[in-house]
């Protein structure tokens, strides 16, 4: 009876030890990574200039002229492993384009400014760099929500015989035939930049939309966005590089 109890107890102990040894590495890894990542996540206010255009797949030509704009918001840097990072955030982007869609209304082009809320998700590789800065590059998707905007029609004819007047109107955002632009935009972006040891960074950005922004009823046109920009930001609570002074080995007399 005693031997049977000892044998059963040994089996239970062995099973518990096996489960503990199996789960311990996973637990330790999650604690280490979780603590390491949470301790190194940094946030950066960012501001930049943006140049936007829109391309029509219907004829394969540029549908608009390059239009200047701004890009500002908060970026978040999340370390993954070694020199790989995840760069995301929440940005406000104002850009637009110039088109001749409403030439019948006034015989001229229409200038549109579009307000977009953008969520980028970029996978970044940052090199070791030197004592001043570290270069980096990355690629990833982005998701944009067009929140509205304004259309400017120079020299529009309000009604026959009224003469030419500059006309302004708000953009209609939606997916119906009466709307000007769809709400959802998504695509791919690539970036390259330089992060200084004091937390300041400068980056360049190129992105291309993959979603048709034309509402239905646009005679089969498929318009997609394009953007390029230059940004500057500052990572708060960045990891500082400790300066070490060279040690001189004393020669024995």
Question: What attributes does this structure have?
Answer:
Porin; alpha+beta; single chain; eight-stranded antiparallel barrel; 253 residues
Break the fold down into its secondary structure elements and pairings:
Layout: H1 2-40, E1 42-56, E2 61-62, E3 67-81, E4 84-99, H2 103-106, E5 110-126, E6 133-157, E7 164-170, E8 184-196, E9 200-209, E10 223-234
Antiparallel strand pairs: 1-2, 1-3, 1-10, 3-4, 4-5, 5-6, 6-7, 6-8, 8-9, 9-10
Give an overview in words.
The chain folds into 2 domains: 1-31; 41-234, Porin. Helices cover 17% and strands 52% of the residues. The protein has helices at residues 2-40, 103-106, and strands at 42-56, 61-62, 67-81, 84-99, 110-126, 133-157, 164-170, 184-196, 200-209, 223-234. Strand 5 (110-126) and strand 6 form a beta hairpin. The radius of gyration is 28 Å and the shape is elongated. Residues 101-107 and 241-245 have low confidence and may be disordered.
Provide the succession of SSEs.
HEEEEHEEEEEE
Care to count the β-strands?
Answer: 10
Secondary structure category: alpha+beta
Mean pLDDT: 76
Global geometry: elongated
The largest β sheet comes out as: 8 strands, antiparallel, barrel
Rg, Å, rounded: 28 Å
Order of adjacent strands in the largest pleated sheet = 1-3-4-5-6-8-9-10
Supply the CATH architecture of the largest domain: Beta Barrel
Q: What's the end-to-end separation, in Å?
A: 78 Å
CATH topology of the largest domain: Porin
Count of folded domains: 2
Poorly predicted segments: 101-107, 241-245
């Amino acid at each position: 009876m005693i031997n049977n109890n000892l044998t059963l107890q040994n089996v239970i102990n062995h099973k518990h030890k096996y489960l503990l040894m199996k789960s311990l590495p996973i637990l330790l890894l999650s604690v280490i990574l979780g603590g390491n990542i949470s301790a190194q996540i940094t946030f950066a206010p960012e501001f930049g200039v943006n140049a936007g255009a829109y391309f029509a797949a219907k004829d394969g030509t540029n549908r608009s002229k390059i239009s200047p704009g701004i890009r500002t918001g908060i970026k978040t840097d999340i370390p993954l492993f070694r020199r790989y990072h995840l760069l995301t955030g929440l940005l406000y982007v104002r850009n637009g384009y110039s088109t001749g869609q409403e030439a019948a209304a006034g015989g001229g082009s229409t200038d549109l400014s579009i307000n977009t809320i953008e969520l980028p998700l970029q996978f970044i590789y940052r090199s070791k760099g030197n004592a001043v800065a570290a270069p980096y590059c990355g690629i990833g998707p982005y998701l944009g929500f067009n929140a509205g905007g304004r259309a400017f029609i120079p020299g529009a004819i309000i009604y026959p015989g009224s003469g030419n007047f500059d006309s302004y109107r708000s953009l209609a955002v939606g997916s119906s035939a009466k709307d000007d632009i769809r709400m959802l935009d998504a695509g791919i972006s690539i970036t390259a930049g330089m992060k200084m040891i004091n937390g300041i960074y400068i980056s360049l950005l190129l992105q291309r939309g993959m979603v048709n922004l034309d509402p239905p009823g646009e005679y089969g046109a498929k318009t997609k966005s394009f953007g390029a920009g230059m940004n500057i930001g500052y990572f708060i609570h960045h990891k500082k590089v400790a300066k070490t002074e060279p040690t001189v080995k004393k020669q024995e007399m």
